[in-house]
Amino acid sequence: MYWYSAKPRITTFGCHAEPRRSMSVKAFARLFFEGLRMTTLFFFISVLPACKPDIKETGAALTYFDLKGYFKNNAAQLTAHNKPVFKTAIHNNVTESKKVTIDNWDRELSLFSASDINKPAWKDSYTVQNTGNAIFYKAKNPELETKEITINKDGNKVKWIIIINHTKNLLYETKEKLTYIPDSMYRVEKTQQVRLLGMNKYDIKGVLNQ
Length: 210
Prior knowledge:
By secondary structure, the protein is of the alpha+beta class. The protein is built from four helices and nine strands.
């Protein structure tokens, strides 16, 4: 979902064919900590998928709104329409905007579909409040990543969805607010605090029909 104009620098050690030049202590320290930063970043990237439990679909009736199925259908419709998206990405107050064509809508909306709460072990893990035109889900267990889901509807038609996710452990803390308005707009507001790497803030917004 995210794109940036700048590419990260990757520092390698001991891989150059040319003879090394001598460097100052200050230069060596900068190189060392840059390598440490990238190594730590790659560590988080490699271990994050392993933190998610392996959930197998049982085919049983769904307890809550079928978020995964909903976004799968939306991704298929958006792929068929193949319309460009005006996308704005803000990373730590640095903004970039451009019109893009999304080549994989399943991947583009993956954060939304991954927030589905229809897991067999979670069938009694959320309170449900239905007001007729809106459904509110709230996690009972503070350890659950998806804290709240609000779905506003007009009859059987979804008008908008807001999802609140929060993860915290000894290594990092991530907060997400996901907003989706069908055929109009989607937005990801994310704050991530990682030990040794500091704070990062992201705000990615895609506007359709531009």
